[in-house]
Design goal:
Layout (H helix, E strand, L loop, with lengths): L10 H15 L5 H16 L6 H16 L3 E5 L1 H6 L1 H10 L3 E4 L6 H13 L5 E2 L6 E3 L9 E3 L8 E3 L5 H9 L3 E5 L6 H5 L2 E3 L3 H15 L4 H9 L3 H20 L3
Parallel strand pairs: 1-2, 1-6, 2-3, 6-7, 7-8
Antiparallel strand pairs: 4-5
The structure holds adenosine-5'-triphosphate (ATP) and magnesium ion (MG).
């Protein structure tokens, strides 16, 4: 049971933190994952802890791109399994994407805990578990580059929430279309991905599910139009302007 009072002005953000700490206690989240959460929280604070206009636009484009994909896949790490396991599975069913457990800090025990959580939340097939189908992405070192031959390696569109910059760059080099959720518009992942949703994944994922449902009625041509008109760098700049405007308003400078 949560110890955070509902009346707390930042209750939602504290609940997200609590989910991650619980995930750490259950062996899902790495210590480094807690630090990544802290970095995310700082940016969320600067964004006003709400989904902005630029993020909503990126969500719509991501939904269109996922519906156009031949083989979409969602990469799951410990933070995602702790923060939004139900939604990630709902999204995978909505856009007919596979799920692959892919850890930046490889650890078999943690991987098992993540798989168990996903299964308990309704996941059927989970890739990234069979060493016989592991292959290496070129361009990055050691364990970070291992992916599933039948999953990320063969996919055309990859959703990598809260991903490290090196891996995102390797995925791009391997010709993948990369969609990410990242609160830091300046991170290497944000700057390298094709579509960056600058928002807390716990807020944005429900919006992405709804948008995918809505756009599933559109034909390929209209979906393609949504994707082609999108400029990720421009969208990132809009997010940075949102941060700047928030700061100047709150500091009473403007
Ligand atoms: P990069 O490697 O891309 O330059 P980094 O090294 O600063 O980034 P990583 O730990 O590699 O950070 O990646 C985690 C990213 O996830 C960070 O940019 C962090 O801001 C972001 N993040 C953390 N929690 C959330 C969350 N709940 N929703 C969205 N993004 C988050
Ligand atoms: Mg990193």
């Amino acid at each position: 049971m949560s110890l955070i009072p509902k009346s707390h002005p930042r209750a939602k953000s504290l609940l997200i933190r609590e989910k991650l700490v619980n995930g750490f206690d259950k062996g899902l989240v790495a210590k480094e994952g807690l630090l990544a959460q802290g970095r995310g929280e700082a940016f969320d604070y600067l964004l006003g802890e709400k989904t902005g206009k630029a993020a909503k636009h990126a969500i719509k484009v991501a939904a269109a791109q996922l519906l156009l994909a031949d083989m979409p896949i969602i990469s799951v790490n410990g933070n995602i399994a702790a923060l939004c396991p139900k939604q990630i599975i709902r999204l995978s069913k909505q856009i007919k994407a596979k799920l692959e457990v892919n850890l930046f800090y490889t650890n078999e025990k943690r991987k098992k805990a993540i798989i168990k959580t996903l299964k308990n939340n309704g996941a059927r097939e989970i890739l990234g578990t069979n060493p016989a189908s592991s292959v290496k992405l070129p361009g990055i070192d050691s364990a970070r580059r291992i992916v599933d031959k039948n999953g990320i390696f063969s996919a055309d569109v990859v959703v990598v929430p809260l991903e490290d910059g090196d891996r995102t760059m390797a995925l791009r080099k391997a010709g993948k279309i990369v969609i990410t959720f990242d609160l830091n518009p300046l991170s290497r992942t944000s700057q390298t991905a094709n579509i960056t949703i600058v928002d807390n994944v716990t807020r944005a994922i429900d919006l992405l599910i709804n948008e995918s449902k809505k756009l599933s009625k559109k034909n390929q041509k209209s979906l393609q139009k949504i994707v082609t008109g999108f400029d990720n760098k421009k969208n990132l700049r809009e997010n940075i302007i949102q941060i700047k405007n928030n700061l100047t308003r709150r500091a009473g400078i403007a």
